[in-house]
Specification:
Layout: H1 2-22, H2 25-31, E1 33-36, H3 51-60, E2 65-67, H4 72-85, E3 93-96, H5 109-113, H6 118-133, E4 139-140, H7 164-179, E5 192-196, H8 215-222, H9 224-231, E6 236-239, E7 243-244, E8 247-248, H10 253-263, E9 269-271, H11 279-282, H12 289-299, E10 304-305, H13 309-319, H14 325-341, H15 354-360, H16 364-377, E11 379-383, E12 396-400, H17 402-405, H18 426-431, E13 437-441, H19 467-475, E14 479-485, H20 506-516, E15 520-525, H21 533-538, E16 541-544, H22 552-560, E17 626-635, E18 641-649
Parallel strand pairs: 1-2, 1-10, 2-3, 3-4, 5-6, 6-9, 12-13, 12-14, 14-15, 15-16
Antiparallel strand pairs: 7-8, 11-16, 17-18
Helix pairs in contact: 1-14, 2-13, 2-14, 6-7, 6-16, 7-9, 12-13, 16-22, 19-20
This protein binds alpha-D-glucopyranose.
């Protein structure tokens, strides 16, 4: 086993060097060029940019990778050009955003993180890899490992929350899930640790905004999940749009060469984010795209995603002596290395099996894994007087909220390969429990359209016309289940918010329903922490159900009816006010951490809100209760302390508990 892996490494390096020697400068630069193509077999070639040029470059061997090309037939068509029409027949690596599933979606990563269940998270990534690989894909732009303490930022949904330790563990689980133990298998994908680095610290939570952090935050909070990804064997990195401490990450030599390639000895390759090389001009950091190409290549960005910078400018820059050809060799070497490791040279069509695609995609086993992951991702925030779990017989239950029947929003915003309306809604999940009388009323829209790339149209934001119907249903119900929160496109990339309440008129609806029936179970569908003070004050039961993917409604129903005892713990603090942000559990003490005497003001606090979050990192309730006794700590050496505790389930339900130790 060991010797074979040794020969395979030596073997790969020899093959890379032998191939590199045959390549012209333009062909090496071609490996560094990635095009996007929402490929349409009947329509023209790749979309976006100069589609005809892309085809020409493909034939010349000036393209090393495609993204947004999917489906065995489409991938085979393009791979065939690379293999048969170019001089050297170097296979393309096919990348896609398999962020939390491919067509069968698991919960958004922030939700999966709430499970704290590393095996389940790894399994979820394995399933995503197997399904995407069956569609011709061999590289995913995941895991996103950006730590963030700012719920205003829309992409917190994509990460593992605020803690570098939990974030590192989850990064390892996801990389191992995607890549498996053998990257050359046709069921595994090369993973991509992104976005390097600091994107989650965008100033004021505004998307793509400037990042300026000190060395302590950089080294202790931001870097660890990236280092953990390398320890887990991640084969690619993606850099980030943001400027970091004065220099855009894409052109940041300190990040990509000094730290990533030299100090951490990363031997995979770095892909830019979409257009981030060209965007250094907008940053004011480059004069033009040629200057941007020079900066990015010298700084260690190996592959250009959709800037057309390397393919158009890099050869001249080398010939003019502004970029050392050794850097081109290094970048091409890294990219070829990963392609050899994927087995693409042995069989460039190994991911292109039409029969397998038909059999694998959407199979029941993937739905089962998605449901298991979804149940474990749910966090019980409040359950006064044990209103939950619901009785299964003889109850009149009102189900209210547009999101309760929404079969698309639970898929989140990274769902390019998933079809709309394929999630199990809460309504459908609850209808599977036939012992009660279930009546649904929308009450109000969440207020937004269903667009992916454009600012949502403001529709129905003030429409209260359906309130009376919802009130009538609620008035006579034993229990009202309200599903409120954000539509799928209200979090994710390009979706920063300055307020963290319920969008549209949902809060008015909730308060109107509360007037006629106080027995409310609030189920939240959201992609980020929200401000829930009024809810925590008035609503007896609150369930954080994020966006749980394809099996969302079944998972939520099974938790509400007690067939699964909620076990999730928050991976990110829920603030009492937006003004507290950034807020996180491992804050520093400051020199004046406590109130010196009643009424005094000179200590670290606000006048209007207490310092603590409403719900803290690591918080989550259960239908049962757990007792911790007999806590013991023993010093084993100058580096080791062993801590033990007796944990006892003292309630009526079997349940899971995440025992947490903070030092
Ligand atoms: C996007 C995202 C990045 C994604 C890439 C390809 O803009 O920032 O996370 O992988 O472009 O879609």
């Amino acid at each position: 086993e060991f010797s074979s892996s040794i020969t395979s490494v030596v073997d790969v390096e020899q093959k890379v060097e032998a191939l590199l020697k045959q390549m012209t400068l333009e062909e090496k630069i071609g490996q560094m060029n990635q095009y996007s193509g929402f490929w349409d077999l009947t329509g023209p070639a790749p979309t976006g940019g100069n589609a005809a040029k892309k085809y020409e470059h493909l034939r010349k061997g000036y393209v090393g990778s495609m993204l947004n090309l999917r489906g065995v037939e489409n991938v085979r068509k393009i791979q065939k050009i690379a293999i048969e029409e170019t001089r050297l027949g170097i296979p393309l690596i096919i990348g896609f955003d398999v962020i939390h599933g491919y067509e069968t979606l698991s919960p958004i990563p922030l939700a999966e993180s709430a499970s704290w269940d590393l095996e389940a998270i790894k399994k979820s990534a394995e399933v995503a890899a197997e399904e995407a690989a069956a569609a011709g894909i061999n590289w995913t732009f995941a895991p996103m490992v950006d730590i963030s303490r700012d719920a205003r930022w829309g992409r917190v949904m994509e990460g593992a929350g605020e803690d570098p330790y939990l974030g590192s563990k989850i990064a390892i689980a996801r990389v191992q899930g995607f890549q498996g133990s053998d990257l050359s298998q046709h069921t595994t994908l090369a993973a991509c640790a992104k976005h390097f680095a600091g994107y989650g610290f965008s100033e004021s939570g505004r998307e793509y905004n400037t990042v300026d952090v000190g060395t302590s935050t950089l080294n202790n909070i931001i870097f660890p999940p990236f280092q953990a990804s390398i320890d887990a064997g991640v084969r690619t990195f993606m850099n980030s749009f943001n400027e970091l401490n004065g220099i855009p990450a894409t052109g940041n030599r300190y990040l990509q060469r000094d730290i990533l390639k030299n100090k951490w000895k990363f031997d995979g390759f770095v892909v830019s984010d979409w257009g981030s090389i060209e965007e250094m001009t907008a940053h004011g950091h480059a004069k033009d795209n040629k200057h941007a190409a020079e900066i990015a290549a010298n700084a260690g960005s190996d592959m250009d995603m959709e800037s057309y910078a390397y393919v158009n400018e890099l050869a001249a820059l080398v010939r003019e002596g502004n970029v050392n050809e050794a850097y081109i060799d290094d970048a091409a070497r890294r990219i070829l290395r990963v392609k050899f490791e994927l087995g693409l040279f042995e069989d460039p069509y190994k991911y292109c099996d039409e029969q397998r695609e038909k059999e694998i995609i959407g199979q029941q086993a993937f739905h089962d894994a998605s449901l298991d992951m979804a149940k474990k991702s749910i966090v019980l925030l409040k359950n006064k007087n044990q209103l939950l779990p619901l009785k299964k017989q003889g109850q009149k239950i009102a189900l209210i909220g547009a999101l309760a029947s929404d079969k698309t929003s639970p898929l989140g915003n990274w769902r390019i390969a998933a079809k709309d309306n394929t999630a199990v809604s809460v309504l459908e999940g609850m209808q599977a429990y036939t012992g009660n009388q279930l009546t649904y009323a929308k009450g109000a829209d969440v207020s937004l359209g269903k667009t992916q790339f454009t600012e949502e149209l403001k529709i129905n934001t003030t429409d209260r016309s359906e309130f009376p119907k919802a009130l009538a249903v609620a008035k006579t119900a034993d229990v009202v289940v309200m599903v409120l929160g954000e539509v799928g496109y209200q979090s994710g990339e390009g979706r920063s918010r300055t307020e963290l309440g319920l969008p549209g008129v949902q809060q008015d609806l909730l308060e109107a329903i509360y007037e006629v029936n106080k027995n409310i179970v609030l189920v939240l569908n959201n992609g980020r922490p929200l401000v829930l003070n009024w809810h925590n004050e008035h609503i007896p039961a609150i369930v954080e159900a994020w966006q749980l993917g394809t099996q969302s409604g079944n998972a939520i129903a099974q938790v509400l009816y007690g067939d699964y005892n909620p076990s999730g713990k928050l991976p990110m603090s829920f603030p009492r006010a937006v003004g507290q942000i950034p807020i996180y559990y491992n804050y520093k003490n400051t020199g004046r951490p406590t109130l010196p005497a009643p009424g005094r003001v000179f200590w670290s606090h606000y006048q209007d809100v207490e310092n603590t979050p409403l719900y803290s990192f690591g918080y989550g309730l259960s239908y049962t209760s757990f007792e911790y006794t007999n806590l013991q700590a023993e010093v084993l050496s100058d580096k080791e302390v062993s801590v033990s505790v007796m944990l006892k389930n003292t309630g009526k339900f079997t349940g899971k508990e995440v025992v947490q130790l903070y030092i």
